[in-house]
Amino acid sequence: MSDTRVQRKASQSRQPASDGNTVELENLRRERDRLLAIMENANNGLIVLDTKHIVTRTNQQFRELNGGKDIVGWDFFKYLHHPRVAPYVNLDMEIDRLKQRLESGQHTTLYAEVSHPEPDTEMHRLQMIVSPLSEIEGTGAVINLQDVSALVEKTVEANEMAQKAQRHSRELTELTELAEVSSIYGFRLETIFQRYLSKISGLIDSSLISVYMYQPSTQRLVVRATTTQFNEHEKAVSLGDDNLPGRVFVGKRSQIENAETASAPHAVAVPILFHSKTLGIILVTGRKRAYDNHDLKLMNLIAGRLAVLVENATLYHDVNARRERWEAVFRFTDEGIVIFDNKTKIVGFNPASTNLTKFAANEAIGQQFTKIVKTVTAEGLSLAALSPIKQVLAEGKTITKSEQLLEDRHGGRTWTEISYSPIFDSAGRVTSGIAIVRNIQKDREVEEVKSDFISIVSHELRTPLSAIKGFLSMILQKDFGELNDKQFHYLNRVYQSNQRMIDLVEDLLDVSSIESGKIKLAQNPLALESIITEVVTELASKGFEKQITLKVNRKNRLPLVLADETRLRQILVNLVDNAIKYSFPKSEVVIDFKVQGDELVTGISDTGVGITASQMDRIFQKFGRIYNPMSVQSGGTGLGLYIVKRLVESHGGRIWVSSREGRGSRFSFALPIAKQLPLLE
Ligand code: ADP
Q: Distance (Å, rounded) from C-alpha 277 to C-alpha 85?
């Protein structure tokens, strides 16, 4: 049937070629056959319509696309209305448009989905290009059909991918914005939380979000920020298996809890983890769609960011609190605090330092330490060269409380006690140092008054006590006649008591001159061994009374020490005298020597009562007497060892003791060796 149409069309268009023109007819037939062959072999489906839109011919390709069915003889628009065909357009409107366009000889493209007659077979997506075909009586058409299913699928996929990419890029921007939250909001956690809540709500498309933080005091998770003012989220939950936040916090792993019933809400919770420490959790609910792995991933990213912010904020608040405390100390303390860098330049200077030096902080900062904290001798010579700050910086040593005379910028002087200590960085390197300057001017003045008083009283006592001693010894030597036994006995006791008072007065005078700095040492190279020989001789009789032997152990020649002879003798007498006093009868007191580095160490050992560990510190203190049967019996002031210690130290030496109760003691003191001189033979 379709053949006749084409034929007719061909014959109509060439009407003048009348019957006899067989060649022409033959040509036309060949052409028609060729066209038909092209049509049958075309890759695309083809439909030919006549002027009434009736399908006159289809090709094999079309029939395949149409599930093997032919539609020749059908009204093409009826075909489009067939239930198996789902056009992508408003058909009625489209049909009108199509008709118009065909009339005016224009191409039109239509899209439709065509399903096969068998159920459950896939749909074909067809693109139909409708081209008008001019005929004498009107306009027919050729429709070129192409299966664009694959193309459409690809396009849909591409579309989805583009959408996804768009979503990801939006998420990325949002996440980047979240990262910048701290630079915008500083360390105000509440604001940061609020900002996070609104971002999460946008990103995860959920309306109910709460940030729970762990509260150590209650050991619970407490809501710190939330989008829900109602009871959708609990305000505090315990750590445990019975609730999602608790489970996630303890397990340190995010969890989705998608609801099984439609009415129950979906939920997702992620831990806020900083390294391996869980700080809290974020709970998200209120979405109709179930949560998936992508949501989890996003939430974990967000929680990670939040963890860093929370940790930083905590650290910041902690450091800030410490800084505030330190600043309060720095500003309001009475003690001067001067901080210097590793080039000995001042970098910190508190108001108390200004009081002491009369330099304002801005004048002091940046200056050399010794220019501002100027220490001088009593004569006014600068001690800058001796300043221990270099030692503090170089050796990381702490130098405690040395008494120093400080000169302010106007030449005014104040007695101070200065401690220096290094400041280390986390790697243990000294980066700077700190000097604490305490004003002890008042203490010194009080001490001076006290010591002046003692010195005056002692002086006043010394003369009459000496006179009493003189007269008593004359009486006891019977210069004024015979004494009966009782008189002798009591006068002898008066004599001894008087002697004790003389000793006390001597000690007090020593203490006051040492403490007021009036004591002047004439330090010379001395042979300690010759002095010890004299001391031993002097005290031998005392030892003899208790049958105590004094023994000097000297193996090698000894180096000379740098010392004041009178004071060195005083030190030795005191220590040997104590050793005898606190020894059991019939024992030995041994004196020995040892060279140790730049020092000569002298040791005085006894096998007497000894000292308990707890009292070891006390014995070098002023009036540091320890009561035991022997000390009661031997009497004493408790000033001896204090004086000895101060004397040894003013020689630049050290003194220490080791002892065991009931077994004896060993007092050792070290004095600097006079190096520059040759050793004595
Ligand atoms: P004192 O005048 O009491 O001897 P010191 O200052 O010389 O004062 O000694 C203080 C205290 O140290 C004494 O009371 C004594 O208990 C203790 N002490 C000193 N030397 C010895 C020693 N060699 N053995 C045991 N105890 C000692």
A: 62
